[in-house]
From TrEMBL:
Protein name: Transcriptional regulator, LacI family
Highest taxon above the source species: Bacteria
Annotated InterPro entries: HTH_LacI, Lambda_DNA-bd_dom_sf, Peripla_BP/Lac1_sug-bd_dom, Peripla_BP_I
Swiss-Prot/TrEMBL keywords: DNA-binding, Transcription, Transcription regulation
Domain HTH lacI-type: 4-58
Amino acid sequence: MKKITIKDIARELNISTSTVSRALRDSYEIGAETKKRVLELAQQLDYTPDPVALSLLNSHSNDIGVIVPDIANPFFATVIAGIEDVAFAQGYHVVIYQSHDSYEREVLNVKHIFNRRKDGLLVSVAANTHDYSHFKDLHDAGFPLVFFDRICEEIDTHKVSVDDFEGAYNAAEHLIQQGCRSIAHISGPQNLLISRRRLHGYRAALMDYKIPINEDLILASDFDAEHSLLLTRRLLQGNIKIDGICASANSIAIGCHAAIVEAGLSMPQDIALIGFSDLPLAGLFNPPLSTVSQPAFEMGRSAAKLLINLIKKPEDNKMLISNVLKTSLIVRKSSLRNG
């Protein structure tokens, strides 16, 4: 005979699997009438909980899984330092996984974290992820989950990000105030919310200053210096003369910087350049790279606090929290024409 699962019950009642799971656990989040319907159908179908799944949900390892695209990226390394700062003080160990911006690797990481009985997951989504069902399944099973930086809006859980729109707006506005009028924008992958928000910030700044938006000057790059180098070369060899570039990430800005130098152009006189997410070595570039700085350490601390509270006191997490942190403009010689 086919083993009845919570998915079968959810399908029969036309409710989500997470609602069924919580009703069977007598969660305060589920109303009495819904609990009654779930329990009656579970008894009618002779539903038996999976003991392995129950043990996974009810046991504690004091380990927190963290998935980042690339631990070598200084931004994510600093976020992890913030996570560990809070986790260690609360008696948790942090286990780091890398997706290397691969969807397939991210899915495997999620399965490993669940199967190895980690208590919760902090994650920044891979650039190649378009399908979030692996996170939905985890969340529906009642597994504590918090997104940071590259967040997923489709899943109702806590999130920590920066004000990407405002940061990109301030970057574009800075170039405009330096006299730039033909400003290119090289964004990250457009499936990521951070890329779309930063592009919207760039567009809004140009519109507010009555500067026409030329779609030919808006390009999407991988978070990869080599790819952005090729795109910037194409821009510089095109028919449209540009005098400024807003790069949506500093991994992109590095390629832009190299292409401008390679072309024999000067920064900022010929082209002013600004990136996003400060690098420790940004001040050592020639010329030093202007950027939008993110509070990476505080992002890690905030995400860890939310997750640990979700693990320890699930009943206190009725209201979903979306922490949006402020960015700051770091102006250096790559963009500073006036002053």
